[in-house]
Amino acid sequence: MKPPLLLIGQGSQDDAYAAEFGRFVHRLRCRLDQTGADVSGGYLERATPRLSDSVASLVARGHHRLVALQLSLSRVSDDFPAAMAREQQRHPTLMYDYGRPLGPDPRVLTLLAERLNDAATEISRPRALELAGARPRLRAVDSLPVEEHHAHVEPGDTAVVLVGEGSTDAAANAEIHRVSRLFWETHAYDFMTVETAFVSVTPPGVPGGLERCRRLGAKRVIVVPYLLFAGGLLERVWAQALAYGAGHPDLDIRCAEVIGDCETLADVVIDRYEEALQLVP
Asked: What is the dihedral of CA 32, 108, 50, 22, to 10 degrees?
């Protein structure tokens, strides 16, 4: 029997993110069940199941070696190795190997390109921001056909803003800038530019990225979230973009979807898992 795969999320109290994370774990469980490999998922903080509970469950089922993979597009956080070290203290027989982070895998960039193209070809775009309780939620409402609101825009007059999560780690932020450049050269070379922005913590924010594109002369800007799953972070990206758009009605601003739970993303994770197994003595 192969060692199990333990997918580790940073953790969020966001129900939408947790639901999609759970669906993705189930997708991988169905895929790897054919090879006799168990799959479990846990969070470092703020959400359940916690990492410690998932590890305890695997050990109780007789697993003493596993492959741990942080489900992240950026660099592995410092919390991840520390958390696994604590689990090894709790379970002295536990051995584990790390899987590499996901991005910027070429297939991840291809998924971003698909989300970009979907947003570029949509005949309508979300224009309203609805408040559900104290939390903003986006909805496509009273949408107008693009041709009624904006004339045809060529790719050369269209800019892209790739939005990362943002971190206090300068190297992690630099990685997002690197992804933007790779994405531009490999999948978005017909567009005016691919600018980098962040949801929070570090500048430029989404409005800053949009403003730079406007000053470069873009007639349309497509915001592409460099995020795995939908949830609060995506809503913040869209809310910031729509707020900026309200003050610049002549600029056609569109918002793409996240990468999301899909077979291609599962392929990338499985490859990282198989790669880690090659390192097992």
From this structure: -60
Length of the chain, in residues: 281
Compute the Cα dihedral for 119, 122, 125, 131 and give only its sign: negative
Q: Where are the domains of the chain?
A: 5-101, 106-255
Write the CB contacts of 260 (distance below 8 Å, at least 6 apart in sequence): 20, 228, 229, 230
Say which CATH class 106-255 falls into.
alpha beta
Q: Give the ranges where the chain is alpha helix by DSSP (H).
A: 15-33, 51-60, 79-90, 106-121, 146-149, 170-187, 206-215, 232-246, 263-277
**DSSP codes of every residue in 97-113:** EEPPP-TT-HHHHHHHH
Give pLDDT, residue 12.
Answer: 66
Cα(22)–Cα(41) distance, integer angstroms: 8
- Contact indicator for 224, 161 with CB cutoff of 8 Å: yes
pLDDT of amino acid 142: 32
Tracing tokens 């410092």 back to the chain, one arrives at: 78
Q: Tell me: pLDDT of 121 over 60.
A: yes
Within a 10 A sphere around the Cβ of 75, how many other Cβ atoms? 16
Quick check: 123 pLDDT over 60? Answer: no
Nearest 5°: phi and psi at 95? -120, 145
CATH code: domain 5-101 is 3.40.50.1400
- Asked if 196 and 164 touch (Cβ cutoff 8 Å), the reply is yes
Measured CA to CA, the distance from residue 270 to residue 265 in angstroms comes to: 9
Residue 1, amino acid: M
**Tokens, residue 159:** 């800019």
CA dist., res. 179 & res. 262, Å (int):
21
Q: What percent of the chain has pLDDT over 70?
A: 87
* pTM summary value: 0.87
